[in-house]
């Protein structure tokens, strides 16, 4: 009896596989038609409750990893959307997460290392065309942001004329496109960047020598706070600026793993790359140092991002974290692209979900 059922099941599976193979083209077309109906409605913003929301649109670094875009964070509060750093592929993640570039109110840059700005071109373009925007995208940053924005504008100037010529002035208004630099000056190591509608955004200086200026950002909204470190070694100014934050997003480089990479590349004769692996260890925090900073700041949760090296599997997380869990009393999250953290007003809850 059992044998007959097993044979019957095998025949059914074999027939289903044969049908799937034979009818791949019409079945594929039907699947695509159905999926295409859902793409335009992929909008996470409409369904978000009031609160302070933090999304990770890129947790990687310049080291290639198919699952981690370059540094990219999105903060949503009071109906406004801010992107902090715009690394390569961050735009694609934002779209997949259901956050349209058309809804981005401003980009905030922490510093001008190439991996933090190399997604700015596509962000300017999508912000313009997807929203038929009539004004350039505001890009905030410490002094130097004018130069960066002017460079991107120059690089995209020809593309801009093609878009308007091809799609027309309604879709691609000539007054929009490109970006508008919004530089701010730090006074005493900090600056108020934006204020209004219950939201306060401050920049604070961090330690990424020889890269200067380099800042992190703190967002406060309805009794909740998120701090984003940017790139920094262990920083006393960050600890002071992020006091009592609910979430600190901190860069993290595991020196032991990077030393292993340095030795491997040196043994392979790649001495220049080996030197870079030696150099970068002094201007990023280790997971242990990030944990100490989060503890000293009295943060509720630590999220590690801009991971060096980019870990291909969660199995490696304990090796990456090292002694960090013993140095911070709260939860430590190894950031992954697509994570969303929601902080309801005037509570201590941190809700987590995945958008990818
Ligand atoms: Zn950097
Ligand atoms: Zn970086």
How is the secondary structure organized here?
Elements lengths: L1 H21 L1 H15 L13 E7 L13 E6 L2 E7 L3 H7 L9 E3 L5 H4 L2 H12 L5 E6 L2 H23 L11 E6 L5 E7 L2 E7 L9 E7 L2 E5 L7 H6 L5 E7 L1 H13 L3 H9 L7 H11 L3 E8 L8 H5 L10 E3 L4 E5 L7 E4 L2
Parallel strand pairs: 3-4, 4-5, 5-6, 10-11, 11-12, 12-13
Antiparallel strand pairs: 1-2, 1-14, 2-3, 7-8, 8-9, 9-10, 14-15
Bound molecules: zinc ion (ZN) (2 copies).
Written as H for each helix and E for each strand, in order along the chain, the element string is HHEEEHEHHEHEEEEEHEHHHEHEEE
Mean pLDDT across the residues is 96
Tally of contiguous helical segments = 11
Helix and strand composition category:
alpha/beta
Largest sheet: 8 strands, mixed
Task: Describe this entry's structure for a reader.
- By secondary structure, the protein is α/β, with parallel strands linked by helices.
- It has helices spanning 2-22, 24-38, 90-96, 114-117, 120-131, 145-167, 236-241, 255-267, 271-279, 287-297, 317-321, and strands at 52-58, 72-77, 80-86, 106-108, 137-142, 179-184, 190-196, 199-205, 215-221, 224-228, 247-253, 301-308, 332-334, 339-343, 351-354.
- Helix 8 (255-267) runs antiparallel to helix 9 (271-279).
- The longest helix is centred in the middle third of the chain and has 23 residues, at 145-167.
- The model has no long low-confidence stretch (mean pLDDT 96).
- Residues 71, 113, 115-116, 231, 306 line the site of one zinc ion.
What's this entry about, in short?
The protein is an alpha/beta fold. Helix content is 35%, strand content 25%.
């Amino acid at each position: 009896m059992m044998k007959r059922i097993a044979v019957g099941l095998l025949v059914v599976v074999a027939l289903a596989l044969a049908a799937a193979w034979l009818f791949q083209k019409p079945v594929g077309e039907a699947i695509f038609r159905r999926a295409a109906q859902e793409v335009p409605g992929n909008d996470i913003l409409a369904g978000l409750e009031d609160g302070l929301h933090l999304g990770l649109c890129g947790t990687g670094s310049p080291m290639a990893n198919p699952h981690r875009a370059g540094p990219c964070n999105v903060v949503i509060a009071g109906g406004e959307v801010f992107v902090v750093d715009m690394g390569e592929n961050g735009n694609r993640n934002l779209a997949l997460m259901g956050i349209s570039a058309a809804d981005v109110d401003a980009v905030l840059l922490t510093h001008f290392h190439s991996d933090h700005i190399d997604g700015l071109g596509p962000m300017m373009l999508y912000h313009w065309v997807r929203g038929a925007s009539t004004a350039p995208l505001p890009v905030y940053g410490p002094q130097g942001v004018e130069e960066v924005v002017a460079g991107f504008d120059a690089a995209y100037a020809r593309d801009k004329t093609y878009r308007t010529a091809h799609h027309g002035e309604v879709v691609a208004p000539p007054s929009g496109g490109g970006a508008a630099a919004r530089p701010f000056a730090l006074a005493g190591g900090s600056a108020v960047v934006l204020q209004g509608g219950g939201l306060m955004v401050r920049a604070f200086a961090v330690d990424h020598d020889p890269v200067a200026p380099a800042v992190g950002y703190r967002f406060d909204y309805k009794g909740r706070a998120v701090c984003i470190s940017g790139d920094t070694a262990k920083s006393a100014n960050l600890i002071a600026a992020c006091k009592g934050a609910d979430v600190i997003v901190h860069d993290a480089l595991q020196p032991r793993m990077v030393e292993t990479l340095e030795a491997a590349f040196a043994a392979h004769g790649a001495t220049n790359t080996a030197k870079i692996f030696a150099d970068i260890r002094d201007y990023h925090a280790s997971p242990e140092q990030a944990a100490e900073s989060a503890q000293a700041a009295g943060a509720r949760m630590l999220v590690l991002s801009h991971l060096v090296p980019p870990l291909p599997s969660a199995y490696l997380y304990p090796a990456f974290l090292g002694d960090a869990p013993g140095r911070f009393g709260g939860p430590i999250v190894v950031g992954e692209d697509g994570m969303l953290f929601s902080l309801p007003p005037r509570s201590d809850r941190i809700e987590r979900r995945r958008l990818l």
